[in-house]
Design a protein that fits this description.
InterPro entries: P-loop_NTPase
Number of helices: 26
Strand content: 5-15%
Number of strands: 11
Helix content: 40-55%
Structural class: mainly alpha
Protein name: ATPase AAA
Distance between the termini: 106 Å
Strand order of the largest sheet: 2-3-4-1-5
Radius of gyration: 47 Å
């Protein structure tokens, strides 16, 4: 370094004392070089070392997150405001911040956020100065002296200066006020002049004399002269940089943009000529270069070149092989392309800006570069408005709402999401409307006073106290919370199927998550019982959600098991009561009731008795049948229904007088008996013998009754085209009409 030793030592002493310093100077004075030298001297002063940051187009919040990411190992994690401030307060490092763009109260807030850090900041004179209470040391950096300027010119020219060149250098120092950048560019002019002199194909002018030195006006702003000696690929790179407002694309993209496989070396050529300077992780045109090149016609095709860059970055940013961090490194060039297309009024440029914003914004969000994410979304929203693309405009409103939700600005998130839902409602976009309403529900859940506010931490950016509870401004800490669940239809109790069925307790088998999720949700009573805590108090956060979900799953599983059991019973009864077409003729037919003799293997058609000497047969339910004459109509219960039987015997039959079966009624679905139109014509005969008790069968029935009350019930079945039949229920239950 030339004539910077004194400033270097002073800055190192101030940093060693724990003071923060702001170095101010115009562009081209060597501020970045001086800061790098001081940073190398202070590497062992702080426990967290030296942290180098770039303030170029960065907000105070962005810089705090950059400081957090540089010190803490937290990949893919972005803390909230409260956690960020708490973590940054514990950082003890020397922070070298180059090209800061804010001052005043914003700078004071930034410095107060990291009280254990010593800051070394550089800024231009047009940046607002810090406040008087900031305790920030100011160091103004001026130009070089005439001697130092001559030495720097010799270093840049890579040879000693001739007498005329030394006189020219003195005039250049007066014209440029000793800015080191001007001497670097003047050295490139001298190298260009030497190259022309040594070229064998170019004859020396004026009888072997060297080319004259450029005028001072051109030497003080030599961008046009330097660009004339560059290669074609380097000049194309300059045109693309001018189209982007001074931002240079990465050298890896230059071959695709320029159409030259060797264009990646153009950036080094521009850097050697002093036409570009470093700006963080990328390069931009040096101060004054873009304006001089635009005046010489390098900006004639800015709109077309910006469109080409936008198309290239749209394809590149949307490719799945490109990591979000790589896209975030090109954020300045991408955002500059969007701004250039929005400013253009040519057809298709606004549409290209929309496509670029939709491709780059998700990558910026994934890379946690939320400042670039917000600018990209706002550029895309403006481009969509200019292009008349309502669907894309609704998308960008939704993205702004999600960004505001992530940063804790709930009012802004609600406004953006409502605007998005309104636009999508006009377009009848159901999926987009549903997505917007879901995001709006998240905003409502995080709002202070919401029932779900405790499950998401501090709502609205609030900080958590020492007790672990979050105090909301809109609700008291002991306010009762009610969870509302959807209503369900009331179902008929299963006990109604069987008259004497009683409730029993049974083990619930394990069910899969799929089957449990497909069951109807629990009624409100079950939901309110599940939402209560163990002690009857107010459950909080995720513990309340887990308790409610577990109990609801148990209720749903029990309902599912019971439903499966009922359906299985119905299917089994329907399968066993089928009508076989190949059945014998003596099976049940219309006009007969089903009876079964002890010596028969199947059900036969019961014939009415014609005399008194025939022994009566037991009926279906085990009740005795009284003999009647064939002509006598039935005055008892209709077909298919019998009186409830008494206590069952071990064999499943009951004792009592027998009675003959009655013919089925015309309406088998009628429960009560129908009166006949004519009185009976005869009197039923009285049996002369004592009724005999039916002999129990030796084979056990399909369902063995027990002395206890049955816990199962039979469901009615109906068959089309067959005679109405009656099924025998379990012991203690009456018959059920089919």
């Amino acid at each position: 370094m030339l004539e910077r030793d004194q400033e270097r030592e002073r800055l190192a002493r101030l940093i060693a004392r724990g003071r923060s310093v702001r170095v101010t100077g115009p562009s081209g004075t060597g501020r970045s070089t001086l800061l790098e030298a001081v940073a190398s001297d202070c590497e062992r002063l702080a426990p967290d070392g030296v942290v180098r940051l770039s303030g170029y187009r960065r907000t105070p919040t962005d810089l705090l997150h950059d400081l957090y990411a540089a010190v803490y190992d937290a990949p893919l994690y972005r803390p909230d405001r409260a956690e960020l401030l708490e973590a940054v307060q514990e950082i003890g490092a020397v922070v070298v911040l180059d090209d800061i763009e804010f001052g005043g109260a914003a700078l004071d807030e930034f410095l107060d956020a990291a009280p254990e850090c010593a800051f070394l900041i550089s800024a231009t004179p047009d940046v607002p100065a810090p406040s008087a209470d900031s305790h920030l040391e100011e160091v103004f950096l001026s130009g070089l002296s005439r001697t130092a300027g001559r030495e720097l010119l010799e270093l840049a020219a890579r040879r000693p200066l001739a007498a005329d060149e030394a006189s020219w250098a003195a005039d250049l120092w007066f014209e440029s006020e000793g800015l080191p950048l001007r001497f670097v560019q003047a050295g490139a002019l001298l190298r260009q002049r030497d190259a022309l002199r040594d070229a064998p194909s170019e004859p020396e002018a004026d009888g072997g004399q060297a080319a004259p030195l450029p005028p001072l006006a051109e030497a003080a702003s030599p961008a046009v002269l330097l660009a004339a000696s560059l290669s074609e690929a380097a000049r194309d790179a300059l045109r693309f940089a001018v189209a982007l407002g001074g931002e240079c694309p990465n050298q890896a993209h230059l071959p695709a943009l320029c159409g030259d496989t060797h264009a990646d070396a153009a950036l080094g050529e521009l850097l050697g000529h002093g036409l570009v300077t470093a700006a963080g992780s990328h390069y931009r045109l040096a101060a004054g270069v873009a304006a001089h090149l635009a005046a010489e016609g390098y900006a004639d095709e800015d709109a077309g070149r910006a469109h080409t860059i936008a198309q290239h970055y749209t394809w590149w940013a949307g490719h799945r092989s490109v990591a979000p961090e790589r896209v975030a490194a090109e954020a300045d060039a991408i955002l500059a392309a969007m701004a250039a297309l929005i400013g253009s009024r040519e057809a298709g440029h606004a549409d290209a800006a929309v496509l670029l914003a939709r491709a780059a914004a998700p990558a910026f969000a994934a890379a946690l570069h939320w400042g670039a994410w917000e600018r990209a979304v706002r550029h895309g929203q403006e481009a969509a408005r200019l292009a008349g693309q309502v669907a894309d405009e609704a998308y960008f409103h939704h993205e702004l709402g999600v960004l505001a939700l992530c940063t804790g600005n709930l009012d802004r998130a609600r406004a953006e999401l409502e605007a998005s839902i309104g636009l999508r409602g006009v377009l009848a976009d159901k999926r987009g409307t549903v997505a917007g309403r879901r995001a709006l529900a998240l905003v409502a859940d995080r709002s202070p006073g919401s029932a779900m506010a405790g499950a998401f931490g501090a709502g609205g950016g609030g900080r958590t106290g020492a007790g672990g509870t979050t105090a909301s401004s809109g609700a008291a800490a002991d306010e009762e919370t009610t969870i509302v669940t959807p209503k369900v239809a009331t179902t008929t109790p299963m006990a109604a199927i069987g008259a004497s069925a009683t409730a029993t307790t049974a083990a619930i088998p394990a069910v899969s998550r799929t089957s449990a999720a497909s069951v109807t949700p629990a009624p409100p009573a079950a939901a309110s019982a599940a939402s209560a805590g163990p002690s009857g108090g107010e459950p909080r956060g995720l513990r309340r959600l887990a308790a409610y979900g577990a109990r609801r799953n148990v209720v749903a599983a029990a309902a599912g098991v019971l439903l499966v059991a009922v359906l299985g019973t119905v299917v089994t009864l329907g399968a066993t009561s089928g009508n076989d077409d190949n059945s014998p003729a003596d099976k049940v037919k219309p006009g007969h009731s089903a009876t079964q003799r002890d010596d028969d293997k199947g059900l036969t058609a019961g014939e009415p008795t014609s005399g008194t000497g025939q022994a009566p047969q037991p009926g279906l339910s085990g009740a005795p049948q009284a003999p009647t004459s064939p002509a006598a109509p039935s005055t008892g219960a209709p077909s298919g229904s019998t009186a409830p039987s008494g206590p069952s015997s071990p064999s499943g039959t009951s004792s009592g007088p027998e009675q003959p079966p009655s013919p089925p009624s015309s309406d088998p679905t009628t429960q009560g008996p129908k009166p006949t139109t004519k009185p009976p014509t005869g009197k039923p005969t009285t049996p002369t013998e004592e009724p005999t008790r039916p002999t129990p069968t030796t084979s056990a029935p399909a369902t063995t009754p027990t002395d206890e009350t049955s816990t199962t019930a039979s469901a009615p079945t109906t068959q089309t085209g067959s005679a109405p039949t009656t099924q025998t229920g379990t012991a203690g239950a009456g018959p059920v009409r089919t």
